[in-house]
Amino acid sequence: MVAHAEQRPTVVLVPGAWQRSCVFDVVQDKLQLLGYPTVLVDHLSTGAEPPTIELPDDVDNLHKVLQQLVDEERDIVVVAHSYGGVVASCAVEGLDVPTLQKAGKTGGVIMLAYLSAFVLPKGASLMDGLHGQWLPWQKVEGDYCGTTNEADVFYNDLSVAEQKKWTATMTHMPVAVFKSSCTYEPWHAMPCMYVFCTNDNAIPLAMQTGMADQMGSITTYSIQSSHSPFLSSPDDVIKAVELAARTGEEKKSLM
């Protein structure tokens, strides 16, 4: 029997760069069948015309969504992919359970799960994380940043037909989002988790491990997948989300 939705944390799914939130459609459907209210959040920067949107704009966009859920007194699990990890790190500031409890409020973000996502120290930008060099598959033209070789970089464990389908949905990002600095380190204030994608060609496993290590003692989970496990391994993503929710609820009960 599926539990009532109000008994489950609300899961907020945040995509990475170049991809829209539709990549999470299958995961969202599966989560809702399990009784998890689920919200998809697109970045303002994804496909922005003109390409003038910066990281703070995406942060504010996500923060507003989370604030509304907090106002509804919901427990929230944020699952952020790739670039979305930087957005989520900043957007959850002030919305962790301990901070909200001190203000006499119920609910809040009980877990932030980084899904093969960037974890940046405060003051660092994505370009800092890339050591100031664009990657070979990033195509930069003026203020636009696109991608090349998407099938191998993002979708290397999908069929050719699926690779073509999802490559066609990808769009550009403003160069500015890669140069904006992270403003918050949430792992000092709330439970965090890292979900490793072991066959990721966009963010290699060694890089994922290095970023996860800087957060100290956190929950971890591994999926044998490409950079897009929500497409190739949705059931494994569901297991990771359930672990995130369970762990977050357990930690909240101890606060």
TrEMBL record:
<dbReference type="InterPro" id="IPR052897">
    <property type="entry name" value="Sec-Metab_Biosynth_Hydrolase"/>
</dbReference>
<dbReference type="InterPro" id="IPR000073">
    <property type="entry name" value="AB_hydrolase_1"/>
</dbReference>
<dbReference type="Pfam" id="PF12697">
    <property type="entry name" value="Abhydrolase_6"/>
</dbReference>
<feature type="domain" description="AB hydrolase-1">
    <location>
        <begin position="11"/>
        <end position="239"/>
    </location>
</feature>
<protein>
    <recommendedName>
        <fullName>AB hydrolase-1 domain-containing protein</fullName>
    </recommendedName>
</protein>
<dbReference type="InterPro" id="IPR029058">
    <property type="entry name" value="AB_hydrolase_fold"/>
</dbReference>
